[in-house]
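Sync notes, pocket subgroup
Present: LS, DG
LS reminded everyone that the earlier model was apo-only. Rerun requested with magnesium ion included. Inputs:
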Amino acid sequence: MTQTIAVIRGDGIGPEIMDATLHVLDAMQLGISYEFVEAGLAAYEAQGELLPAATLASIAKHRIALKSPLSTPIGEGFSSINVSLRRHFDLYANVRPAISFPNTKSRYQDIDILTVRENTEGAYIGEGQHLSADGETATLTQKITRKGSERIVRYAFEAAKAAGRKKVTVVHKANILKTTSGLFLRVAREVASRYPEIGFNEMIVDNCCMQLVMRPEQFDVIVTTNLFGDIISDLCAGLVGGLGLAPGANIGAEVAIFEAVHGSAPDIAGRGIANPTALLLGAGQMLSHMGREDDARRLRRAIVATMEARDGTTPDLGGNGTTQGFAAAIAARVNG
Ligand code: ATP
Ligand code: MG
């Protein structure tokens, strides 16, 4: 049976890393076909719109999209396309694995942390923003709901269960932010009590940052609110060697979009040296989401083996390979 996904080749290094990623997926013979749609600068130049209706319709139809980084045109008045997509499809869970890979310059080995960030509430709702007339006082509204907290914590536990993970850590600041973070923590405890087979602990966000840097191996799955999750997931990416290896998924009840965390890297675009690994790992998250855990594992194993052998690795990993050459080296290992 063939499944179709929406594919956005994106801007900057986007087309290069997407071609590389699809080359590897094709080599895996997954029976997945692609509908190519546009967004970002490419869409703006071709169709006069950053996020065309046909693109939204394709994503809604196939319910799964693989997306390269997008640029917004320079100038005022353009809002982030990623935020638009998140709002349009109510993509409430931002899921970012941070996994150690061989032969990187990272400080740690053996890290395997999944950060689950609530993506629609908290400090980022854009409500109640007020600056007093004299410009001396600024305020902002944070919003936490039972429904929003419940679904993100449930997502974290379900993800833990599906991946055979052992522990979920809820990260909060309920001692100070008593109403908002307090509600999140209470709901997290309730949800956790329904998953007795999975360990659960609580950590205050400042301590969590210190623990992540000092003893990252104690973490398995982290679930937290929007602002804390934004910061912690980047911290985790830094623990394992940075942007070229950091994928992310944006997941809603109907639609899920998989991507690399990094941007369009205009400084190296068109030179064929971008590292495709982050997007490939995003494709791995996509396969897990489709229930194809064996294929996801096969893909990750091939990436690890290729990095282990330093076969065609790109300059950011200390090699002198190309995007396509590295992808070909990975593709050669996916069936072995
Ligand atoms: P944008 O405006 O789209 O966010 P940016 O340049 O601000 O782009 P990134 O694209 O995230 O931010 O890039 C930050 C740095 O990391 C750049 O020097 C870029 O070349 C490098 N970089 C990002 N992604 C990759 C990659 N996949 N392979 C190699 N280098 C990368
Ligand atoms: Mg950037």
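DG: The pocket of magnesium ion (ligand 2) is lined by residues 263 (CB under 6 Å).
LS: The radius of gyration is 20 Å.
Action: DG to write up.
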